[in-house]
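Lecture 7 notes: from sequence to structure.

We start with a single chain of 201 residues. Read the sequence below before looking at the structure.
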Amino acid sequence: MVYIIGISACSTSEPRLPSEESSEQNAGPSVLVKSYKMAVGDQIQINVWKNSELSLAEPIRPDGKISMPLVGDVMAVGLTPEELAEKIEVRLANYVKAPNVTVILTSLQGHEFLSRIRVTGSVIHNVSMPYHQGMTVLDAVLEAGSVDLYADANNTKLHRRTSKGSMTYDIRLKDIMEDGDMKTNVTLMPGDIISVPESNF
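Now the structure, written as tokens:
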């Protein structure tokens, strides 16, 4: 009886998801983005608290700079988002009382590892696409033209590089696409690889 229960528990085990990892293990990609040195072409959003007219969203120009109202051109290449925010705050202090600036990376174009999402295996098109903030597994698979007729979609794997090394997570892609079960439709991180295996039949 105990043996049968053990088998049952194994067969109904929940998929391994990034959110189920400890905060320390799951911090890897976030740390990579926070410490990322911005490059030409990266799309950034700059928010100035209580001064929406100064906020903007634009790519970093080929000369490495962005332009802001009041402060003019600011060099962004080679800085982290936090460093750029601090630099803008210093300049804005001449015009705005106690400015509070946040810089968000919305699209990473400058470095191959951080800027690409890859979908491989039993999909219509094996693709490598730019990372965009908020992308999910389903978004990426649809960009690949969806799965093909031979896909073992519920055994899809998400491979992610973290500060602890390479991690692999379970994605039940068939459940996502056919049943609308979004439990494993996780938000992607820069550099993620989605691998859809072929059925063994």
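The first helix runs from residue 2 to 11. Keep this in mind for problem set 3.
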